[in-house]
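Justification of computing resources. Each target in the renewal requires a structure prediction run like the one illustrated here; the chain below, 252 residues long, is used simply to show the kind of job we budget for.
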Amino acid sequence: MKKIIILNLFILIGASVVVAQKQKTTTQPQPVQQQPQTSAKTEQPAINPLAVHFARKHSIATRWADPDVAKDALYDLIVEYPDSDSLIFALALSYYETNKFAPTVLIGQDLLQRSPKNTQLLELVAEGFQGLNIPDRALQNYESLYLITSNSSTLYKMTFLQFGLKRYPECITNADILLGKPDAETIKVVFNDAAGKEKEYPMKVALLNLKGMVYRDQEDKVNAKKFFDQALAVAPDFLPAKENLANLAKLK
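Resulting structure tokens:
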């Protein structure tokens, strides 16, 4: 998941925890000769000291790599300001970053009820469902995200989820849409090479290999081989396509 930048909590609190106070106006009694009224005084808004304390606690815990204490501080802040979506989102993200996907999803879904078209929330919940190995729910959220953003990377994730769910016609259709886009050549995806090291490849290579896997699963060896060969023509060292082509030759 692309890195989501959270605003500094002190800035966040400065925007959300200011306590509004009424203006107080004092007037002088009217003597025989009229005197001008004193100007109205406006008290400066006060900062909730508990919020400042919890924000500092969060900052220190984050600096010292203690995610549990940092989350505890976020809960304290949310108790003080339950309507702050930014704080609640920060809590969901902190769970995601520590691979605790169940609370990530539950918190994200609550926030989506308030902001159903929030793209950061849709992406976070989708990836949370993927972490929980619930691909159909992940796909639902990616579909909602793609309708808003038309982002190629989102459609790429959808395509692979559709393959895993054996929704082959949709998978092929979306792979073809992506292959027809110029950024299929420029967007990079990561796979392991023969040495087991991560390497970047154009998204196009992975999509051609994916189409080959769809045809292989449908027992269409001719088209499967065609797309594995096309993937290798673009990237001869692309290990998944090499392995798929070798395994295809063993099928009866």
